From TrEMBL:
The lineage of its organism: Bacteria, Pseudomonadati, Pseudomonadota, Alphaproteobacteria, Hyphomicrobiales. GO terms for molecular function: hydrolase activity. It holds the Pfam family WHD_BLACT. It comes from the Bacteria. Residues 41-218 form the Metallo-beta-lactamase domain. Residues 116-134 have a biased composition (Basic and acidic residues). This is MBL fold metallo-hydrolase. Keywords: Hydrolase. Residues 104-134 are annotated as: Disordered.
Amino acid sequence: MSDNDDVPFNRNFPLKAGIVEEVRPGVRRVLCNNPSPFTFTGTVSYVVGQGNVAIIDPGPDDEAHAAALLDAVCGETVTHILVTHTHRDHSPNTARIKRATGATVYAEGPHRASRPRFESEKHNPESGTDRDFVPDVKVAHGDVIEGAGWRLEAVATPGHTANHLAFAWPERKFNFVGDHVMGWSTSIVAPPDGSMIDYMESLDRLAAREEDLYFSGHGPEIPDGPRFVRFLIRHRKAREASILHRLAKGEADIPTMVRAIYIGIDPRLTTAAGYSVLAHLEDLVARGVVATDGDPVIGGTYRMAS
């Protein structure tokens, strides 16, 4: 969803599905063949370590991708499976990999929304959530997961989903950031699944850390990660300013705001853009800057509070 030139996106990602690429010593990646407007060229799964390894984000319910991952670790032992979050393009293949390897599954917990659903809300069509996923081990912020020659620290990064975690490798200055930060596009934050308030706090948390090479759930690695995060923070603040600019002209519903703000957007992303605007509005209503009648929902009408 990049209608903007203010973030230095990189869409150069020639990796082909099913091929194992050692992107840095101790880090391999395998692309799943599930391209879409939301997943770019597909979901990227990572293999961490050598000999005794961890797999991060086994990907969607996809037998070919599971086979490619198992092929990538042929002759090695998978001791850990780590899951950043429970969207259907990241966690469902966990069951296949666990069956094949007996590895222990680590994640923040089962899927949950960022806030209770309002009475007036319909089901969110963008959710694409994996409601069957349950980890063997629930991981909290700051927990350390160790294997042979690697040590990963869980970093709570809610926002894209409530249960989103990044896995930092402080010794190597690497961070596996899932969908919280992507090099090819901004992340979708769609309430009630996601929360812009949480998302912005999580960006600040990442920007304050030492890790500078990010491995993302989609697209290429991101060098100088904290600098890129600062671009994303500025971008979100500019998006908020655009919403306030439109509301300064008078009351508006979300489709009206999307048309005013996302010029030339891919029509397939219009719904997602609407939820992104809603995420900002939810934050603005909570801060008392914007008003609406009733709960802040996708079908609501919004105005400046003063």
